[in-house]
From TrEMBL:
Pfam families: Glyoxalase (PF00903). This is VOC family protein. It comes from the Bacteria. It comes from Glycomyces niveus. Residues 2-123 form the VOC domain.
Length: 133
């Protein structure tokens, strides 16, 4: 098998609102859009983020219809404190203020207009070193 690209697809009530949030605050660009569908990317993300409108007749499998509950959209960054200050200055509501886990993960969370949690992370220690003890 050869994977040529990757994406995460999220089922939300308002795909345009979520897409505009990622574009405005996280530097994504729109690759394509249609009624009930928006695909976004950034060259450094390694995957596309796709929003699909909840209830689309073409959404398969039927059992997966619903909201993106429990999902975290996570991006690892170089300077978590600078990103925290930046999104606050842009007026983005912080869902979870900066925390540092004992294993070295420093993060904060925001939520897009559909409630999808976006988490920015900076590793303060290498992930393998943090779990080796």
């Amino acid at each position: 098998m050869r994977i040529t690209s990757s994406a995460v697809s999220l089922n939300v009530a308002d795909p345009t609102a979520s897409a505009e949030f990622l574009k405005a605050h996280y530097g994504f660009t729109e690759d394509m859009a249609a009624e009930g569908f928006v695909s976004l990317s950034r060259p450094d993300a390694g995957f596309n983020v796709i929003y699909l409108k909840t209830g689309l007749a073409t959404f398969k499998p039927e059992s997966a219809k619903g909201h993106a509950d429990g999902l975290l959209l996570v991006f690892v960054v170089d300077d978590i404190d600078a990103e925290y200050e930046r999104v606050q200055a842009e007026g983005v509501a912080i869902t979870t203020p900066i925390e540092t886990e004992e294993w070295g993960e420093r993060y904060f969370q925001t939520a897009d207009p559909n409630g999808v949690i976006i988490q920015l992370v900076q590793w303060m220690t290498e992930p393998d070193a943090a779990t080796a003890s």
